[in-house]
Amino acid sequence: MSNNLLKGKKGIIFGALDEKSIAWKVAERAKEEGAKFTLTNTLPSIRFGKIGELAKDCDTIVIPANATVVEDLENLVEKSMDFLGGKVDFILHSIGMSLNVRKKRVYNDLDYNYLGETLDISAISFHKLLQVANKMDAINEWGSVIALSYIAAQRTLFGYNDMADAKALLESIARSFGYIYGRDKKIRVNTISQSPTPTTAGSGIKDLVGLMDFTGRMSPLGNATAVECADYCLMMFSDFTRKVTMQNLFHDGGFSAMGMSSSAMHQYEKGIVSKDC
Ligand SMILES: NC(=O)c1ccc[n+]([C@@H]2O[C@H](COP(=O)([O-])OP(=O)(O)OC[C@H]3O[C@@H](n4cnc5c(N)ncnc54)[C@H](O)[C@@H]3O)[C@@H](O)[C@H]2O)c1
Fold it and tell me: Which one, of 32, 18, 83, 38, lies nearest residue 234 by Cα?
């Protein structure tokens, strides 16, 4: 169902790999809601993923960019403005990757070169994007920029590894740049902290199935899906949220405010052998 929420708006969407990707759902919903946008991802992801199919469905183009390379971002922003016929109104940063997670290096045995890459890809790329867009004056007044985060930025979740540090930095960059962008150009910068979601990046989270069962039990509204996350992104891109900035917005069915739920306690008690505490 379309409400023309983004009618006339233009944007750039990072991070659609396949139909499970949160960015893929954002692109589909943004198109339904009347937006025009470009898509981007790394060259290998474009070759091995399915973003070309998405571009076709969304009547748009894919512009390759490694989000850690400033020249790639400059080229992306320039080509996007050419294709869209002017400045953009929204940008989605939906990027995350940790080589320590991939190579099964645990948090107390990190490879520091990998850590550098984790921070560069998953967090510093957001600063690079904001700085390039600012210098190129690429975002319209009252525009909106969103990056996707996870609660491990603020609470320790076993196994999320160095991605927790990357997300903490990502959320801090949103605040620091949000001040500058708000003050100078009336542009919003926020992060959305999403429930665990079964995507390619999500499958890097340790014991994702068990974790999703736990967070689902703990959340009064249940885990938020990728499509629901897309709808929240759209709302943040719309004119209905013009004074929301520098925030980390939890989109997690209430998980972040919970300590224990009846459903989780019920399940936990099944595993307790002796009740003598
Ligand atoms: N899936 C979850 O459980 C979950 C929960 C909270 C937040 N998030 C965040 O949501 C975002 C999207 O992840 P997803 O779950 O849709 O998984 P995904 O694997 O579909 O998307 C991750 C994307 O990052 C891209 N990417 C990696 N390195 C890049 C680089 N150098 N330059 C440009 N792009 C690069 C990948 O190609 C991929 O498209 C990530 O920031 C992730 O951390 C995911």
Answer: 32
Rounded Cα distance, 114 and 119, in Å: 9
Angle between helical axes of 226-237 and 22-32 (0-180°, round to 10): 50
> Are 40 and 14 spatial neighbours (Cβ–Cβ below 8 Å)?
yes
| pTM for this entry | 0.97
Q: Which domain holds residue 195?
A: 10-270
pLDDT tens track for 175-202: 999 999 999 999 999 999 999 999 999 9
Q: Which of 235, 166, 178, 242 is nearest to 204 (CA)?
A: 166
Any domain includes 92: yes
* 98 ligand 1 Cβ < 6 A: no
Examine residue 275 and state whether it is found in any structural domain, yes or no. no
CATH number reported for the structural domain that contains residue 92 in this entry: 3.40.50.720
Q: Are 19 and 28 in contact (CB under 8 A)?
A: no
Q: Is the CB of 200 under 6 A from ligand 1?
A: yes
